[in-house]
Amino acid sequence: MKTSPILVFLCLGFLLPAENSFAQSEQDSIVRRVYQTTRIQGSSPTIDGILDDQAWEQVAWATDFLENEPNNGGSPSQETAFKILYDEKFLYIGYRCFDTEPDSIEARMSRRDGFAGDWVEINIDSYHDLQSGFSFTSGVSGVKGDETITNQFNWDTNFNPIWYLKSTIDDEGWVAEVKIPFSQLRFTGEDEQVWGFQINRRHMREGTRSTFQEIPNNAPYWVRGFAELHGIKGIKPQKQVEIQPYVVGKIESFPEEEGNPFATGNDSKLTA
């Protein structure tokens, strides 16, 4: 038996308001954590994997992560802390990933977006549409991962922005220092920004993940449940143009001639 299109339309007319109401009430029930950042006064941090620059003293540490997997909502055995700063052109994130057995940290090399070993990442909903975002993953070995997020759960590794990372291991665990150009993000032209964000850490040895903002494993959302980043003021949307210098070693054999064995160049990304 075929169903009448009119009947389907009428049924949807009754169902959609109920679904929208449920989604709105679910969103209103989220208790969001807030991190207050500030514009850097003085020199910006050097990205060397050591959080000893004076700039980092201008903001507070954020801690109290909760386990996401496997014990959703539990207390992780290894603490995580972070700080966020910004200047006119860059967002800076400093991570302190504590580990009681630093000699056993899983520092694995892989290709970009390989997500091997221990890592920590920031997901940024810079447009604050509660639907999409950008992800920047920092591996303890210095390997980068980057993805776009759409429709809450769709992750795309074809996103390959230019950004900067340095990781180090010490007696307390490991540290990652990150610099992300604002040109690699998308945001509004408002003078004062509110962004959604999430910090997510994987501890491979114990098989756990922990997050700054608690999100139930059975929640029908990811981006919508993010914490909020406050305090970004006076930045303007920029064209996605970054130039990454590089040096390529090259050996050629010419018995009668001598020359510079190095060639220099530039990697550039341009998006209209």
Helix/strand order, N-terminal first: HEEEEEEEEEEEEEEE
CATH class of the largest domain: Mainly Beta
Number of helices: 1
- Whole-Å distance between the termini? 52 Å
Outline the low-pLDDT stretches: 1-23, 250-272
pLDDT averaged residue by residue: 85
Provide the structure class: mainly beta
Topology of this structure?
Elements (H helix, E strand, L loop, with lengths): L4 H24 L5 E3 L29 E4 L10 E7 L3 E9 L20 E7 L7 E7 L4 E7 L3 E3 L7 E7 L2 E9 L10 E12 L4 E4 L15 E7 L6 E10 L12 E10 L1
Describe this protein's structure:
The chain has about 270 residues and is mainly beta. About 10% of the residues lie in helices and about 40% in strands. It has two domains: about 30-240, Immunoglobulin-like (Sandwich); about 240-270, no CATH class. It has one helix and 15 strands, in the order H-E-E-E-E-E-E-E-E-E-E-E-E-E-E-E. The strands form three sheets. Strands 1, 2, 5, 6, 7, 8, 11, 12 and 13 form a nine-stranded mixed sheet that branches. It starts with a helix and ends with a strand.
